[in-house]
Design brief:
The protein has 214 residues and is mainly alpha-helical. It has 2 domains: 93 residues; 98 residues, Hypothetical protein, domain 2 (Endonuclease III, domain 1, Orthogonal Bundle). The protein contains 12 helices and no strands. Helix 2 packs antiparallel against helix 8 and helix 9 packs across helix 11. The radius of gyration is 18 Å and the shape is elongated. It starts with 6 loop residues before the first helix and ends in a 9-residue tail after the last helix.
């Protein structure tokens, strides 16, 4: 269900982003911001894994493979050992090996900067592609993970069942000036307030809940 955009909603956007910025704490994987290769690989590794665990494993991998060419030259078993204990590390090691080969052979060693090309890579979905576009290439894109999905629904901006639905709704509803900030801010708030109850309390304390949630 797409909610109708109103002037009150525009004011709410301003208020939410202002307050979230005040309470922002850096997200671990922003450590690789502006490096397309490291942003792509670390984001892929982070699926079903805590960011703090991913950061340690990613740093270990990048010490051995600082470029796509170096990653391609690693044996799959070595990649497994380097990225363990990230979730599904065996599957991800296989994907990373193939992905490096494609980047080197098809894209001349450069991570592509279009969503279509990024999502053509193994293990890369829309969320990962949008994060790479946003963080590494400064191209506005809304990357919706569980935090963005949950908080957007609590705020009453959308009424959706899945992150994919949330992305579609936010693309229509949220002014583009906010697209580059929404993921890092919402992820930061979500990491600080780890349950629905804690999130609601935080939003209520800052007068951000819609009337239907009060």
């Amino acid at each position: 269900m797409l909610l109708k955009f109103t002037s009150d909603m525009a004011n709410n956007f301003d208020q939410v982003f202002e307050i979230f910025k005040k309470h922002y704490e850096k997200v671990p994987l922003e450590f690789f911001k502006k490096n397309p290769y490291k942003t792509l690989i670390s984001t892929m590794m982070s699926s079903r894994t805590k960011d703090d665990v991913t950061l340690v494993a990613a740093k270990r991998l990048f010490n051995k493979a600082p470029t796509p060419k170096a990653l391609e030259n690693l044996r799959e078993l070595e990649i497994r050992k380097l990225i363990y204990p990230v979730g599904f590390y065996k599957t991800k090691a296989k994907q990373l090996k193939v992905l490096a080969n494609i980047i080197n052979s098809k894209f001349k060693g450069n991570v592509p900067n279009t969503r279509g090309s990024l999502t053509s890579l193994p293990g890369v979905g829309r969320k990962t592609a949008n994060l790479v576009l946003n963080r590494a290439y400064d191209i506005p894109a809304i990357a919706v993970d569980t935090h963005v999905h949950k908080i957007s629904n609590l705020l009453g901006w959308v009424k959706t069942k899945t992150p994919e639905q949330t992305e579609k709704q936010l693309n229509k509803l949220l002014p583009k000036k906010y697209w580059s900030d929404i993921n890092r801010l919402f992820v930061s708030i979500g990491r600080q307030h780890t349950s629905r109850k804690k999130l609601i309390n935080f939003l209520r304390e800052n007068n951000l809940l819609p009337n239907t949630q009060l």
